[in-house]
Specification:
Chains A, B: Specifically methylates the N3 position of the uracil ring of uridine 1498 (m3U1498) in 16S rRNA. Acts on the fully assembled 30S ribosomal subunit. The structure is a homodimer. Chain A contains seven helices and twelve strands. By secondary structure, chain A is an alpha/beta fold. Chain A has two domains: about 60 residues, Ribosomal Protein L25, Chain P (Beta Barrel); about 170 residues, SPOUT methyltransferase, trefoil knot domain (Alpha/beta knot), CATH 3.40.1280.10. In chain A, strands 6, 7, 8, 9, 10, 11 and 12 form a seven-stranded parallel β-sheet that branches. Chain A has a five-stranded mixed β-sheet with strand order 1-3-4-5-2. In chain A, strand 10, helix 5 and strand 11 form a beta-alpha-beta unit. In chain A, helix 2 runs parallel beside helix 3. The two termini of chain A are about 30 Å apart. Chains A and B meet through helix 5 and helix 7 of A and helix 5 and helix 7 of B.
Chain lengths: ~260, ~260
């Protein structure tokens, strides 16, 4: 929503001392879509999360050369590392979660097969789709001016998800029923305890939510149930509520 | 995401002392889609925001009769009355804002013609689309178990929007540039000052955002600029961030 220099993610190998080489689809985007020329400026994102303003010094059919003018000192990444584990939803809802979740600052996405996931899904199918998914998160990262592209992990089972949980400090799952219990911790209480360097894994059930078996499994493995407001959210809306709330709490609330 | 009784919005005129009459599309939904029968229970929403558990006592091709078993005592509506003014976006993005915005608790939507709105739009076109829009917010209200259906207002100009502003306590517009200024109030600071009975109007620019002229106009008329996190959000994502943050702040943060 603000007019700014176009951004491109450039692989490590294409960064030289003071020059950046852009290749692949981005060349077409620079010359044909944006119609940029020698002397025009762009922002190049380094995979390590740094970004630099660069000036185009040469354009050919398959590569663009730009000189680094200055390294930017920005912090547009969420101070909390949030991974969204999404129960495989129907139709193209996963595309949508990847695009919006990237805009809202997710660090990674883990699609998982839940009991109530109706889509048939296997490693092969994921492989096929991975190219599109990678393109979606790359473009959403550029559009939202992020300096990191979220990771998309292979499809897991709930058991696999529980193994993966060992890599996180805080484990949550969306489960509004829980909110009715006395000993329930609100999402706000949980975020208040979170420290800025921590990693959080948030699991969202598919259409129909988690089965009772899955709920028990998650609870037994230290996943805390959270309510995302008193209204029932669709499976593709829940991760956006989680990410927007975390951004609001740590980036806009500024109560400390 | 929780299995619960199906909800139907029933116009005032169809509520009798202890019986409710359901007519129109919902009859088909009850008998054919949900395959409900005599003795099955549903929740009927009264336009005033009340809801009751009802038991079906008769089904015909064009009407369903149900007795009121008990009035529910629920509060699933946002404690703040939030109206989203959406700069007319491209393609079907408005459908999307209406559906997700309803799930997230919006009280009303005002589409408006911004300088950078590329879609051609007139009262006629709106009239045509209004049926679909009304259906979207009704179904999203039912699905998210809301007790009120958000209002969809006619398309306004920015001037019209500024007139409309007289009906609200707090006026905001999404404008990340502003966040760079020293005297800027964060979204959190603004929500901290908000009282639970107040009405808030939040304006979101179309693709390309607000023009400088519109920004000045809005500021001169007491609209406060807010940043929605440091990342650049698409026009259809911004209202979801606003609503999720307000829900989080007033329904889940519980810091008082």
């Amino acid at each position: 929503m603000v007019l700014a220099l176009q951004r491109y993610f450039v692989p490590v190998t294409n960064w030289k001392t003071d020059v950046v080489y852009i290749t692949g689809d981005d060349v077409h985007h620079i010359s044909r879509v944006m119609r940029l020329q020698d002397g025009d400026q762009i922002i190049c994102n380094h995979p390590e999360g740094k970004a630099a303003t660069c000036e185009i010094i040469s354009l050919t059919k398959d590569s663009v050369q730009a000189t680094i003018i200055e390294w930017l000192n920005e912090s547009v990444e969420l101070p909390i590392d949030v991974t969204i584990a999404q129960g495989l939803p129907k139709s193209d809802k996963l595309d949508y979660v990847l695009q919006k979740g990237t805009e809202l600052g997710a660090a990674a996405f883990i699609p998982f097969k839940a009991e109530r996931s109706v889509v048939v899904w296997d490693a092969k199918k994921m492989e096929k789709k991975l190219n599109r998914y990678t393109k979606i998160v790359k473009e959403a990262s550029e559009q939202s001016h992020r300096t990191k592209i979220p990771q998309i992990m292979p499809v897991l089972t709930v058991a696999g998800l529980i193994e993966e949980a060992a890599n996180y400090d805080v484990l949550l799952f969306a489960y509004e029923e829980e909110a009715k219990r006395e000993d329930h911790q609100s999402f706000g209480t949980i975020l208040n305890k979170l420290r800025k360097d921590q990693r959080i894994l948030v699991c969202i059930g598919p259409e129909g939510g988690f089965s009772q078996g899955e709920v028990n499994q998650l609870k037994e493995n230290k996943f805390l149930p959270v309510r995302l407001g008193p209204r029932i959210l669709r499976t593709e809306t829940a991760p956006l509520y989680v990410l927007a709330s975390i951004s609001y709490h740590f980036e806009e609330l500024r109560w400390v």
